[in-house]
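Lab channel / #folding
Pinned by the channel admin:
"Please post every new chain as: sequence first, then the structure tokens as a reply. Keep commentary short and put observations after the output so the thread stays searchable."

First post following the new format, from NK:
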Amino acid sequence: MVANAKAFPWGAGILLLLATVTAAAAGAVISGGSADPWYAALHKPFLTPPDILFALVWPILFVLMAAGAMLVLERAGSFERAISPLGLYYTMLAFNAGWSLAFFGLQDVSLALGILVALWLLIIAMMQDFWRYSHLAALLQLPYLAWISFAGYLNAFILFAN
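Reply from TO:
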């Protein structure tokens, strides 16, 4: 073993993965999709993807999010040395779940759009902080940023068309 090699901070890594899975599960439980009568009755834009696409895209996005955060954690060597980007990551997860709660749980489309705008800004800030530790970690967030941008279009259309 190399004397200067840092051990991976497994405790922080496990907590990061648990937080990611919890946020993903919360969104999945709260979001009823087309099975939700309220959502099914909404006038939605032509570009609204079928439910199956959401079911395929979100797990991939959460894997990419977590992979980026794990790269940052690995490069930093501890949570304390990466408190800014990982703090933004945890905040982003909370806003991600908060959007599902606002949109599907509370059926408050305008609140959901406000959360989505904040989420988009959080992703940008997180990517900037990730970049300092790992360019790959930041780039892995691009599909998530694109998806959230698309979700903003869908959310805004639903707000103004209903």
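NK: The chain has a mean pLDDT of 95.
TO: also worth noting, The longest helix spans residues 51-76.
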